[in-house]
Design a protein that fits this description.
Distance between the termini: 63 Å
Shape: globular
Order of helices and strands: HEEHHHEEH
Largest sheet: 4 strands, antiparallel
Number of domains: 2
Number of strands: 4
Number of helices: 5
Amino acid sequence: MMVFTKYFACFLLCLFSITTTSCARRQQFSPTQTTYVTSDGNTITMRASGVGASQQDALSDAEMRVFDVILFRGVPESQHRRPLVSTNESAEMMRNSPYFADFYNGKRFKSFIVSSRPVGGFTKLAGRQYQTTAEVRVNLANLRRDLEQRDIIRSFGF
């Protein structure tokens, strides 16, 4: 019985240690922000922060954040206030899962990026993570056309 108590106490101590360590790591990352920079008729430029295991992963994460805002949230202070797809992100992701799996996991979103450059370099975070802020320019006309052709949205909206 005494051995069981020691193992149980050790288990609880390990569990507590893992929980507090993971919470501390999450607090070190600054919140990901996406802001509108400028747009013309066919493109929009936004600035976003991203975090990843490598510098390329951090840049890619920032790019994906830009598409999340454009597709599911809309861009305040721009002519693209309404999201391209819908505000119900989880329902749309499930309804069109093959498209969005290819779009995000297959890195298809990169075909709609006109330019992407880190602003201010990369910051090394604890836990072998990198963080960067990138300025990403997206071709909205081609993105909208692709969504229409694949029946994700209708030609006059969602």
